[in-house]
Design goal:
- There is one protein chain.
- With 365 residues, the protein is mainly α.
- It folds into 2 domains: 27-215 and 340-353, Citrate Synthase, domain 1 (Orthogonal Bundle); 222-324, Cytochrome P450-Terp, domain 2 (Cytochrome p450-Terp, domain 2, Orthogonal Bundle), CATH 1.10.230.
- It is built from 16 helices and 3 strands.
- A 3-stranded antiparallel sheet has the order 1-2-3.
- A hairpin with a 4-residue loop joins strand 1 (19-22) and strand 2 (27-30).
- Helix 5 (91-105) packs across helix 6 (114-139).
- Bound molecules: coenzyme A.
- Coenzyme A binds next to helix 15.
Amino acid sequence: MEEMKKGLEGVVALDTRISYIDGIQGILKYRGINIEELADLSYDIVSYLLINGKIPDYEETNDYSRMLKENRQINGKLIEVLKNFEFGIEALDSLRTAISCIAHFDEQNNHHTPDANKNKSIRLVAKFPTIVAALHRSSFGKEPIQPRETLSHGANFLYMLTGRVPTELEAEAMEKDLILSAEHELNPSTFSLRIAASTLSDMYSAVICGLCTLKGPLHGGARKGVMDMLDEISNPGITKDYVLQKLERKEKIMGFGHRVYKTYDPRARIYKDVARRLAIENGDTYWFDLAEEIEHIMYHEFIEIRGKPIYPNVDFYSAVVYKYLDIPAELATSIFAMGRVSGWIAHCMEQYSDNRVIRPRAHFV
Ligand SMILES: CC(C)(COP(=O)(O)OP(=O)(O)OC[C@H]1O[C@@H](n2cnc3c(N)ncnc32)[C@H](O)[C@@H]1OP(=O)(O)O)[C@@H](O)C(=O)NCCC(=O)NCCS
């Protein structure tokens, strides 16, 4: 039997054409294009790129955006089901249930042709934001807000959440957030999705596996963890003690460290810049300053004292961006999923196109 690698650390499980990470240099590319370049495009273009493997031309972009807009609406029956949810249910749990429900409304749910999968992919990408916004509103007894055709994917989500058309910078921040969250090679949720896809299960089921895995606080749930931490600190005077006491108790500081990056996560740099700009636009740099203070303390503790490469990851400054966008912490993981769904779909299709059941062995002790 081969040597067992706990957490599959460093194990290469498959070939992919979807994304590339250099964890030492801090490089991330989707389909060969640097994340810094992609962050300036629209989510529609990046979603198309991930799923179809190329940047769409003008006509393809228009067609794809039109199809996404046409599919933003959700079945009225779903809202009725959602209204039955008890108040207080975790947002990600209700999103998971909602995706199960919409699978039943999709006649092509169990059709596995490339065309059916393409149609399902458009429905999934288009409906995620509508579902997240509607779920959140219905948990407060509010009616869902209908999607607005004239708004981009990100801006429309903020509009459906609050009923207010976002400022240009807020819309840009949301769009960038979805792009930066869209794909990250064989992270835990994508791996679990590929395992489901490798059994030739349908796309909805595979996406639900991704959602269930994203939920954990060591993966997508870390973003909420950062938001909670920022709230808990409450007073910048206690930041250092707060962080050091947590480290003494051997607790993790959410939003730091990464299995693959041993340097600054390139996505974190982009989020940091967006967070700074939002702070300035809002005329209130409190959250940004607090986050930077935590970063400085962590840098001193890990890089300067212990010589360990623990840097901010994707979840750290994205949480600060959410603070400025007035996004409640309980929505953080669901919004992460709204972006990630394009990457999940791309991996699902890649798995279907050259499949072998993913089935490792265990070492019996
Ligand atoms: C992401 C993460 C799960 C990577 O895990 P991993 O590759 O298994 O690395 P480990 O958890 O074994 O960490 C290695 C060491 O760094 C420490 N460390 C890693 N991340 C840390 C953090 N955020 N806060 C404090 N210490 C941390 C660990 O305690 C461990 O120390 P040890 O060698 O003394 O035991 C881990 O860094 C983490 O839990 N981070 C916080 C959650 C988070 O932000 N997740 C989002 C990831 S994008």
